[in-house]
Design a protein that fits this description.
Elements lengths: L2 H11 L5 H17 L1 H18 L1 H4 L31 H37 L1 H16 L2 H11 L5 H12 L1 H14 L3 H8 L4 H12 L1 H24 L11 H8 L8 H28 L6
Helix pairs in contact: 2-14, 3-5, 3-14, 5-6, 5-8, 5-9, 5-12, 5-14, 6-9, 7-8, 9-12, 10-11, 12-13, 12-14, 13-14
């Protein structure tokens, strides 16, 4: 029998997961996730905060840079629910617009880390040998670097003070955990029957990696990416608080806290809203990540 006929016969004989089983698995995952009350709370809170930041120009009438020296240091009240700052700017308007920056850093950094880490992990796990050795040694080197001092040094040395610089720093040194996670998944999957069948049917290596290996490693990747969002938001807030992150006049939760420390005893409200937003956002994504991890875990009871 010709090799092409053998491959076609192998493809016909291999068991295929029915569509009903896939749908059943999705329902089972949703059922597990729905039982995790804190995860539902975290998902709802993250969604509300993201929508509030996206719709900030329509939710508050004041602009974040609108200066009104006649309204300086107004405490929280009906006109300004969270007061005004030393230049008469509305704190609520600034906090919501700052959320656009801080959440963008979190989402885009986590997405960049997921893409870069997945590429490294898939290549290392699928090819093995020298490629795996080189990429994993590079991963070990980056992983061994002291992250916080490195972030501080690069933030101080690199020019500019925009979002792109912070995202580039986070992505450049934050992909190692995802790479190791994806590699371990690919090592377990690359000798499975469905991968061998794809090879026998003549599928290219790129197609095998993109269509067969990556989708089967997506569950732990989603969990890792979700947990990373909160970490990057906290990292941006820390860098901006130290004056090395997002630079004024662009507002972020971190530089709002940095500015508020000068007036904490006279205008306590300047620190309350951005501080609470950072705390609640990071906690929400941690709850959401924990719930997704439990939902995707087949050992969890229904």
């Amino acid at each position: 029998m010709a090799s092409g006929q053998v491959a076609m016969e192998l493809g016909r004989r291999l068991p295929r997961e029915p569509a009903a089983a896939v749908g059943s698995g999705a329902r089972l995952t949703w059922r597990r996730f729905r039982r995790h009350r804190l995860a539902l709370l975290g998902a709802g809170t993250a969604l509300v905060l993201s929508l509030a930041a996206a719709l900030a120009p329509w939710l508050v009438p004041q602009r974040p840079d609108q200066i009104s020296l006649g309204e300086r240091w107004i405490p929280p009240g009906r006109a300004h629910p969270f007061g005004t700052d030393e230049l008469g700017r509305d704190v609520l308007a600034r906090a919501l617009h700052a959320g656009r920056v801080s959440l963008s850093v979190g989402y885009l950094s986590a997405g960049g880390v997921a893409l870069l880490g997945t590429a490294v992990g898939v290549v290392a796990g699928y090819y093995g040998g020298a490629a795996d050795g080189v990429l994993m040694r590079l991963t070990d080197v980056v992983l061994a670097l002291p992250t916080i001092p490195l972030y501080l040094i690069l933030a101080a040395l690199l020019p500019g003070g925009g979002v792109g610089r912070i995202i580039a720093i986070f992505v450049a040194f934050g992909w190692t955990g995802v790479a190791r996670l994806v590699r371990s998944q690919v090592l377990a999957l690359r000798e499975q029957e469905f991968v061998q069948a794809a090879r026998a049917l003549g599928a290219s290596q790129a197609r095998i990696m993109l269509r067969h290996l990556v989708p089967n490693a997506v569950a732990p990747l989603i969990v890792a990416t979700t947990l990373a969002v909160g970490g990057f938001i906290l990292g941006e807030a820390a860098l901006s608080y130290l004056g090395l992150g997002i630079q004024p006049p662009t507002p972020s939760w971190g530089n709002m806290l940095q500015r508020a420390q000068e007036y904490i005893w006279n205008a306590w409200w300047l620190a309350v809203l951005p501080g609470v937003l950072v705390f609640v956002t990071v906690l929400s994504f941690n709850f959401l990540g924990d719930g997704l991890r439990d939902a995707f875990d087949p050992r969890m009871r229904v």
